[in-house]
Structure formats: C-alpha cells, structure tokens
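BUG-210 | component: ligand-complex export | severity: low

The export step for zinc ion jobs runs without errors, but we want the raw record kept on the ticket for reference. Input record follows.
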Amino acid sequence: MLHEILPVGMLACNCSVFGDQQSGEALVIDPGDNIPEILEVVARHGLRVRAIVITHAHIDHIGGAQELKAATGAPVYMHADDLGLSERLDMQALWLGMETPERVEIDVPAGEGERLRIGAADFEIRHTPGHTPGSISLWIPAEKKLIAGDTLFMDSIGRTDLPGGDGRQILRSIRDKLFPLPDETLVIPGHGPTTTLGREKEFNYFLQRL
Ligand SMILES: [Zn+2]
Ligand SMILES: [Zn+2]
C-alpha cells in the first residue's frame, strides 16, 4: 500500500495519503491545509479519494477538509464527540490568528471498532479520547501502522489543556487502546517524526507509570 506523509499548514500537521494501486482507491487522513499539494499526490498516483478521515476536530487537522471534499466528492469521517469542536472553527482560527476555513459537514460518524477498507487493508477506528473528546486513532493491521492523531507523539503525548481535554483520559486511552498493539507498530503521530509503539513504551516519560 502506498503511503505518503505530508506535513501541512503552519503547525505542520502530518496528513497521510494511503493508496491502493490495484483498486485505485485512496484514503486521506487529516487534510489540515495545502489541499492542492494533497490533490497532486493523489493525481500523481492515479488515485481516487474514497474517504477523508479526521482524527479530531482541531483546525490544523480539519481545516482543509471541506476544500478536499468539494474537490473529490469523498465523504468525511469523524467521531461524533468532536462535532462541538468542529462547529467552532472560527474560535480556533482566532486563537491561531488565521482565517476561518470553510465549515465541513461530517458524513459518517466514526465510532469505536468501525472499519474502513481500502484495497485489501482494513483501517480500524479506535476511540482514544483525552486530547479532545472525539479523538480517534486508526490501526492498520496489514501494514502494522497506527495513525495516532494528537494522542501519542515521539517522546510526548497530546496536550490536554485545551477545551475538552482530559489528562487522565488520554493516559487511559493510550494504555487500553494502543498498548495492546504489537511493539513493532509504526506510529505516525499528528505532528513530528514517526516512532514505534515499543520505543514509546520504553522511553516516553509520560507513559512510564502506565
Ligand atoms: Zn490537536
Ligand atoms: Zn495537531
């Protein structure tokens, strides 16, 4: 499976483009910004976007979703518990001193245990609240990859001091929903470098007492 990671926008959110060359289907996760660049990657590989997934409704992850949806016609998936946040993109834009992006309609609520299939690969949704109430992670067993949104980073975890954040909950989410995955799982966080679950279990300061 083709996988390109593009850091987009002023906060360099890691947008993932997955593509299955056999079926020509693509899945785009967290199109926060730089939509022309994302569309260029999709076109270069001759793919058609089948779904857009938002790990959580912070503007750096959802900001370009409407533009990408309008360009591709693909449905947008997001957990329902972040709908409140997605309605307040104007406030989020104000905090960051940026223009308010177009509001996006969520087409499919992405709940715990649901699966999206692209080619032969399943993308399993795990509800991992804490950074935001509706934060999700995506586990791709066939690729041994985890899209972690802003829940888990190399050497860090997501901040929980923003509205809807919960410091205990994010640790519970990591312990109960992410730790059971194999240690060799490649973790693609919402920002910064990729890591492995085993490395974070061993060295991530925030996870030492889990
Ligand atoms: Zn965030
Ligand atoms: Zn972020």
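Assignee comment: Attached the raw record above. Residues 56, 58, 131, 150 surround zinc ion (ligand 1) (CB under 6 Å).
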